[in-house]
Specification:
Layout: E1 3-10, E2 16-28, E3 31-37, E4 42-44, E5 48-50, E6 55-61, E7 66-72, E8 78-86, E9 90-92, E10 95-108, E11 113-116, H1 118-128, H2 132-150
Parallel strand pairs: 1-10
Antiparallel strand pairs: 1-2, 2-3, 3-6, 4-5, 6-7, 7-8, 8-10, 9-10, 10-11
Length: 160
């Protein structure tokens, strides 16, 4: 039986930006894989309408500066990937927390890619005073993630 956990996306000041529940379905070394389902329709400025019943497969590495969401339509077809640049997450006592650095990558089912929210990243870097290590870590993570997408490396090699 999968373990249901709470996932918190936080801002740099540690305040919770979003929170949801998902089932931990696999743990492989530093990789945690969760599965969730949208309980209601969501309107997203970059993704459009996400239907109720859309399934989210979520990949978090405890030692990496990004996570990957793989969305499937309720009927099963791959909808898109959505990737967040973030500080490496913490997982304890049934809660996964990560600091979202507001730099995102959207990958459509045809593998066209959109870099999102660089302006938010730069604005929040100024507001929160991101240290140099955070700025360089985020840019390094973006390069690694982009390489994974281009080379169709896990989890970008999964369609089902």
């Amino acid at each position: 039986m999968p373990e249901t956990v709470t996932i918190n996306a936080r801002k740099f000041d540690n305040s919770i930006h979003r929170s949801w529940s998902a089932d931990l379905i696999e743990r492989r070394g530093q990789l945690l894989v969760f599965k969730g389902e949208f309980e209601s329709e969501v309107s997203h400025p970059d993704l459009g309408i996400i239907e109720k019943g859309t399934v989210s497969h979520e990949y978090y590495w405890l030692d990496r500066w990004f996570n990957v969401f793989r969305f499937h339509e309720p009927a099963g077809a791959l909808r898109n990937y959505y990737c967040n640049i973030n500080l490496p997450p913490r997982f304890e006592n049934g809660v996964l927390d990560y600091i979202d650095l507001d730099l995102d990558v959207l990958v459509w089912s045809d593998f066209s890619v959109n870099l999102l929210d660089r302006d938010d990243f730069e604005a929040n870097a100024a507001v929160f005073g991101y240290p140099v290590e955070v700025l360089s870590g985020a840019e390094d993570a973006l390069r690694i993630l982009t390489g994974m997408i281009e080379e169709r490396r896990f989890p970008f090699d999964l369609a089902a």
